[in-house]
Design a protein that fits this description.
The chain has three helices and no strands. Helix 2 crosses helix 3. The longest helix has 26 residues. The chain is rod-shaped. It starts with 20 loop residues before the first helix and ends with a helix.
């Protein structure tokens, strides 16, 4: 081939390519995660509701323990509940202190 001859290869015009399978998976996965996040924001109970339910369950368990210990009189039951509540708070603080990175 001489230097002055034109090359037979001509640049083809760009062809519109379809998205690859990876791109489809990425788009569908992103949409699924976004829908899941919106659903959790709309339908999951708030932290205050969760904490109130936890406190109610905890009070019921404390009453059950006091009943099993035989503390049925009003003053004995109040003392028992106060002791169990303070014990729970001490354990909660110890757990937080043990697991904190401060």
């Amino acid at each position: 081939m001489a230097i002055i001859e034109n090359s037979a290869l001509v640049a083809e015009p760009p062809v519109k390519r379809r998205m690859s399978v990876d791109a489809y998976v990425l788009v569908i996965g992103g949409a699924a995660v976004a829908l899941y996040a919106v659903a959790r924001l709309m339908f999951e109970p708030s932290m205050q509701d969760k904490e109130a339910a936890m406190r109610t369950a905890l009070a019921a368990e404390h009453v059950k323990v006091c009943d099993q210990l035989g503390k049925t009189a009003a003053s004995e039951r109040d003392n028992c509940l106060a002791l169990l509540d303070s014990l729970y708070i001490v354990h909660q603080r110890a757990f937080i202190a043990e697991n904190s990175e401060i």
